[in-house]
């Protein structure tokens, strides 16, 4: 086989390999995560008495029964907590946990985070922003979380400063909480979901389908204008 044909065949094989990986890797990772979630939730069936185990009266193990059970438990607790009696029980339970020294600090922190992320009135990430990080001249996507409060507000006036979360890539659950002057922040029109996708994909998936430059020499546009 001539060298030119071998080169074309090699290039085609590399292209097919990359195309196959781009299709299979997201699918495999998604299936793996779903399998882990289902397997973990299936363990919740162990809290039931043996006579009530679905496998006992069905005669066969059905994957995913734990998901239905966990969902039923969450819905039941939610329905209970939504009425007056349930609210009183939740308040009593919360007060009890607040009296336990070590549990108090852990429970309070987790509850504040969950209230912010899961509450219908909460809005953890309010807006996508551009900030200079980790030094001047380098820009990254961040998210507005609020304004300085408490004792911090005496030193950093809320009317001048914003509370900002700078996520890491590709895992946005880790990051940095910083307080930035309003003049150093550039608001973005993209949604929070689009910005998160942009961060997780390390800039590969561009909101709006616009293609980024292919190299450092493709564009020499100036940095974002600051207002």
UniProtKB/TrEMBL annotation:
Sorted UniProt keywords: Membrane, Transmembrane, Transmembrane helix
TM regions (residue ranges): 16-38, 58-81
Protein name according to UniProt: Putative membrane protein
Pfam families documented for this protein: DUF502
Keyword Magnesium appears in the UniProt entry: no
Lineage: Bacteria, Pseudomonadati, Pseudomonadota, Betaproteobacteria, Burkholderiales
InterPro entries for this protein: COV1-like
Domain of life: Bacteria
């Amino acid at each position: 086989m001539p060298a030119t044909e071998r080169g074309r065949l090699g290039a085609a094989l590399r292209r097919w390999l990359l195309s196959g990986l781009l299709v299979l890797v997201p699918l495999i990772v998604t299936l793996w995560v779903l399998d882990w979630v289902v397997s973990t939730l299936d363990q919740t069936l162990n809290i039931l008495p043996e006579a009530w185990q679905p496998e006992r009266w069905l005669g066969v193990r059905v994957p995913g029964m734990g998901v239905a059970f966990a969902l039923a438990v969450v819905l039941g607790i939610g329905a209970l907590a939504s009425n007056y009696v349930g609210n009183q029980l939740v308040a009593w339970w919360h007060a009890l946990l607040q009296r336990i020294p070590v549990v108090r600090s852990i429970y309070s922190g987790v509850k504040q985070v969950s209230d912010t992320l899961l509450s219908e009135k909460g809005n953890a990430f309010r807006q996508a922003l551009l900030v200079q990080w980790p030094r001047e001249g380098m820009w990254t996507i961040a998210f507005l979380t609020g304004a300085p409060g408490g004792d911090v507000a005496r030193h950093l006036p809320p009317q001048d400063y914003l509370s900002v979360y700078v996520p890491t890539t590709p895992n946005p659950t880790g990051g940095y909480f910083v307080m930035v002057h309003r003049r150093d922040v550039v608001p973005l029109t993209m949604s929070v979901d689009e910005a998160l996708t942009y961060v997780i994909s390390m800039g590969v998936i561009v909101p709006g389908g616009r293609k980024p430059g292919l190299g450092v020499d493709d564009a020499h546009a100036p940095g974002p204008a600051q207002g």
